[in-house]
Amino acid sequence: MRSAFSALSIILTIFSAAMAQEPAARFDWAQAQPHWVKPIEPFRIIGDLYYVGTEGLAVYLVAGERGHALIDGGLAGHEQTIIDNIAALGFSINDVKYLLNTHAHFDHSGGLATLKEVSGAELYASAGDRSALEGGTYLGFESRTAFKAPPVEADLYFFDDADRGNNPKSSLQGVVISFGDSATLRSEDTPGHSRGCTSWRLEVEEAGANYDVLIFCSATVAANRLIPPQYPGIVDDYRLTFEKTRDWNPDIFLANHPEVFFMKETREKQKTGDALAFVNRGAFQKYIAAKERAFDTALETQMREASDAN
Ligand SMILES: [Zn+2]
Fold it and tell me: Contact, 176 vs 184, CB < 8 A?
């Protein structure tokens, strides 16, 4: 019995050594999705909110007099594009004090580890995405090499039940980051697309008027399995997000994939002198209603496939 056990241990040791030696051949997303890494001119969206991402992956800078917040990190290996964009706008990566994330999927969290190191900023993230951030994985697809991201630890996890009452900066309601005289950023729990999918609400001022901005995480099913679940509770999480957002009607709806809010076309309109080009009241309602219908269809399809397989 004992010798069988040690033989098994040796086999396991050899197996894990072989795994460790095998270079992690990373899927080349830059080649598959060239617009994800294609640099574009950064610009001010409205108020103290700036676009510092690439053509195909949004990264936002909220500029404050006592420090900035950066939302999302893009794809790993392309952090310099973001740093250069921040500099081109007259700001510095060294003044970024808060790193935030919409969700821990490689195309939005991949750059966070490097950006954290370079900026020295604190990363605030939702507890639901903790395992994915720290493991550098996509929850439920832990072994998929193409979906991996450099692991990163947050300085603070919010929406954390275990943390309740123990951390003055964190609560089940999330975090509020105040930039003093300018903007205030507030997290909103919108789970489903990832377990910790976090949307960000922001109040900005432009020419004496206030605007309510929503940087929405996502509600697409995309690569997620609903049946069997990508993670336990995923279907309820999507439902919660659709329920919660039903009456949201921000003045400005933005997302982490810029085509969702027609960024390219809107930026052209802005360039012609329309300072309020990004105001798109009603756009979120249309978006989220379409996503709920798509979710229902995907759930039906996956249920049918599951019952056919049995
Ligand atoms: Zn995603």
Answer: yes
Q: Separation of 244 CA from ligand 1 center, angstroms?
A: 19
CB atoms within 10 A of CB 114: 19
**Residue recorded with tokens 């909110």:** 49
Residue 109 C-alpha to ligand 1 middle, in angstroms? 9
Q: Where are the domains of the chain?
A: 31-309
Residue 304, token pair as written in the block: 């049918």
pTM confidence score? 0.89
In contact, 279 and 249? CB cutoff 8 Å: no
Instruction: Quote the radius of gyration of the chain (alpha carbons, Å).
Output: 21
Query: Is there a contact between 133 and 151 (Cβ–Cβ < 8 Å)?
Result: yes
Mark residue 74 as left, alpha or beta (left: phi above 0; alpha: psi -120 to 50; beta: remaining). Answer: left
Task: Name the phi and psi angles at 152, rounded to 5.
Answer: -150, 140
- Structure confidence by residue, pLDDT tens digits, 118-164: 999 999 999 999 999 999 999 999 999 999 999 999 999 988 766 55
* Structure tokens, 266: 């809107």
Its CATH architecture, for the domain 31-309, is 4-Layer Sandwich (3.60)
